Amino acid sequence: MTNFKLDVDGDGIALVTWDMPGRSMNVIDFSVIDELESVVDKIASDAAIKGAVITSGKDAFGGGADLTMLEKQRSDYEATLKASGEEAAAKMVFEKSRKLSQVYRKLETSGKPWVAALNGTAMGGCFEFALACHYRVASDNPKTRLGLPEIKVGLFPGAGGTQRIARMMSTADALQFLLKGNAVAADRAKTMKLIDTIVSAADLVKAAKDWIKAGGKAKQPWDTDGFKLPGGLVWSKMGMMTWPAANALYRKETNDNYPAARAIMSAVFEGLQVPFDTALRIESRYFAKIVRSPEAAAMIRSLFVSMQDLNKGARRPEGAAASSLKKIGVLGAGLMGAGIAYVTAQAGIEVVLIDRDQEAADKGKAYSAKLLADSVKKGRAKQADADAVLARITPTPDYEKLKGVDMVIEAVFEDRTVKAEATAKAQAVIGDKVVFGSNTSTLPITSLAAGSMDPKNFIGVHFFSPVDKMMLVEIIMGEKTADPALAVALDYVRAIKKTPIVVNDSRGFYTSRVVGTYIREGHLMLTEGVPAAMIENVGRMAGMPVGPLSLNDEVAVDLAWKILKATETDLGAQAIDPRQKALLEEMVEKRGRYGRKNGKGFYDYPASGPKRLWPGLADLQKTKLDPDTIDVAELKARLLAIQALETARCFEEGVLTDVREADVGSILGFGYAPYSGGTLSYIDMMGTAKFVALCQSLAQKYGDRFAPNPLLLDMAKTGDTFYGRFAPGKRKAAA
């Protein structure tokens, strides 16, 4: 065997150790499935073996299925589809995709008791492995996490997970666990009855074997006569209290955009009404369908494959020396600077946090103290660890304390003069060799670098708010930024465990530029007479986390007004929409509505209770459309297409140079409809010709902002996709 080792002790108990060679973590691939089946068959057929314990030879039990295996299934499906037709292709995927489920079922009906000895994290298909065992023991490893996160990449547990979970806890709890995909710590898993006991790491295998010796049953509860569903029958009073509410919540949370979420609902609903083996077959049919869905393909590619590539340094310059970052300087202790200091200190790096006076600097450090206190209170961190993080942050107004830093990140107020002053003060101490990063969302890096000692070492490092929660960092190359500076910036982002994208300099870069089109479209819909509530609801229906008006309130309405005025000054009146200008001028200059920050924007923010749309918005609309006459599908298309179109323009202009960064950046940076796989995947999923036709139709009706760019027109003629013409690794020019 390659992946497993089998040892049988004097009591006739087999210890199966899973330890894949050449990997830091066990994952499930075709070789593991085949080998595991051989192990199960051997244990089942050997009368001398009384039972089996499965554990891992690595720090974790297993990380789930190798998703490239599922990508292979999809490519095999497409090849079979061309060669033999839909029925043969669908059957092939069904049989291949259910193989793991069948092996797990063979294990739990083998007549021998199996115990999962979980020495660490078990996710996805690896946790389904544990669920198929008759007993589960976990070590008291505080880092252990257990869960079924497949929904987060457009899939769902397809190796019996939906059926076993729904028979281990109430239906409502099972659906929540499956649909959220969140991992839980071992103690929480025990409370949920997902595992049976927790022991010390030293006693893990012994405890598992002791259960078998004590007469552990080789039969699952659902295979036992008289088994009753914890959540009651589907067609019962308890079931009728669960399913209508669950369906309503599903609609509210997903807007029916995620086929995998619908499949979970269907598989559990149907599976609970039939015998277990039939239920597994139902689950497998839904899984085979979802594996072939374009949404799953796009989400796996962007949220797993591409994100892994970027996190591992896909954009790091070849041959650049590795940097050792031990101390970072952060200029500005406001919300952004304080957040940057926190995530940096969390990564074990010393931070010098500078602001205008000691009080302001201390306030920035207090932000970290509050976050850490909350973590300790919730049991997510120990007080000693929190104290160690705080000890790494030195708040001060003294720029001299920057001596010896390996990198500086400037996060002062978004004003050229203020940034230039901070840059000059810092570089007077650190010199021109230390990489200097500017956290700006809109100011061009090339112009900011002009005031630095050496533009080669000046780079944009754009964080998103709140820094501790947002996983993306947009790194911006100025015209003179050199590769060594890029390498240091990427090393820093990797150290703080965030995902980087690298873009070239332009007004608004990539993320701010594209999300600005979403906000603008909401503004223009409002001026057209679309009810504000409808704009907001349609934004969420399209798959965005919040509506465009709500988003504008969060980033500040007065900031949108400043950006619009600066754009008009720099590029002329033709670069802005006069309707948007009139709306923002009314909101900011005449009404003093700046957004959430002053408690009034497109929404009102009462001291108690939830925010609500400002009733005065209706008074700003010269025209009021009847909502029953408005095409909701068209509104959704406008909100999504305008962002995808702007991304295509960024790609053509060379602001973006990698399709992976476009998609990952759009999802992590501004929440672009994750089910689509990102802005460029949205175009590819629709088909370039169809997308161009949509844009041309919208342009005729709403104006030239929807006019497709030359790159899209050329791709539509040839039938190209972005991932076809510009696949990672290809060096073909975009234009």
Q: What distinguishing features does this structure have?
A:
single chain, 735 residues, alpha/beta, 2-enoyl-CoA Hydratase, Chain A, domain 1, Rossmann fold, N-(1-d-carboxylethyl)-l-norvaline Dehydrogenase, domain 2, 4 domains, eight-stranded mixed beta sheet, six-stranded mixed beta sheet, 31 helices, 51% helix, globular, disordered C terminus
What does this structure look like?
The protein is α/β, with parallel strands linked by helices. It folds into four domains: 4-292, 2-enoyl-CoA Hydratase, Chain A, domain 1; 327-504, Rossmann fold, CATH 3.40.50.720; 510-534 and 546-628, N-(1-d-carboxylethyl)-l-norvaline Dehydrogenase, domain 2 (Orthogonal Bundle); 631-735, N-(1-d-carboxylethyl)-l-norvaline Dehydrogenase, domain 2 (Orthogonal Bundle). Helices cover 51% and strands 11% of the residues. The strands form four sheets. It has an eight-stranded mixed beta sheet with strand order 11-10-9-12-13-14-15-16, with helices on both faces. A six-stranded mixed beta sheet has the order 1-2-3-4-6-8, with helices on both faces. Strand 12, helix 17 and strand 13 (435-438) form a beta-alpha-beta unit. Helix 2 packs antiparallel against helix 3, helix 6 (161-168) packs antiparallel against helix 7 and helix 26 crosses helix 28. The longest helix has 22 residues, at 632-653. It is globular. The model is unreliable at 731-735 (pLDDT under 50).
